Amino acid sequence: MKKFFLIIALCCMGGIAAFAQNTKIVKGAVIDKNGNPLPGAVVEATGGAESAVVDADGTFSIEVPVWLKSLTAKYAGMKNNKKKISRGDLVFNMSPKTGKWFVNIIGTRDLSEEPYSRYGLMGGWLDNWGGYLKVTAPVFDDEIRRPAVSIGVIKSIAQPVYFYLGAGYAKAYYNLEYCDSHEEKHFNAADALLLEAGFIVNIAKKFNITAGYAHYCTDGSFEDFNTQEIHFGIGFCF
After folding, report:
1. What is the pLDDT of residues 177-192, one digit of tens each?
2. pTM value surpassing 0.90
3. Which of 16, 32, 68, 236 has the fewest CB atoms below 10 angstroms from its CB?
């Protein structure tokens, strides 16, 4: 009977030892760009369930599976920071989030001899790399015509200036005509690929202005059609 309990005890000890060998302790610290500790930050096992809260001095200790390759540090107002687990302590240097949403009111002006205007909205995400969606609709004959829709990418050049480049679909209006009976303006229309580029300048962190150029690519089946357009906008960030 004693031998039986001894065998059971040895098996349990072996199991505990095996379990212990399947985990490891990772230690480190979470700090801001000035080296100040960030107590309350959370360090999580990337792809796992384990996590630890950073102490008042900025340090942490977390037990994770031996197969785990990386940890991710998170803190409110900061970008998530992912690091590979290596020998020695891990130090997470956290950077503030720089990205922001923006919405602009846009007005455009066709550069033809008989110009017309478009009005709409442009919105998106400003960051080192971001993106946008723009919708504008032409207005003439006191009617709102089919809108132009475009999407594109935004690249930070140097704070607070951003460059954007995009493409979309639009109805290109051309060859202004007048009715014989009255003075209402009438345009012919063609499907067009819209290509555009421009700049967004962030002002006082909360406001921005936009200026750009657009070109309408059609099948070229009509003459005397000016495909150029400039647009301006103003809005806010949040």
Report:
1. 554 554 555 667 788 8
2. no
3. 16
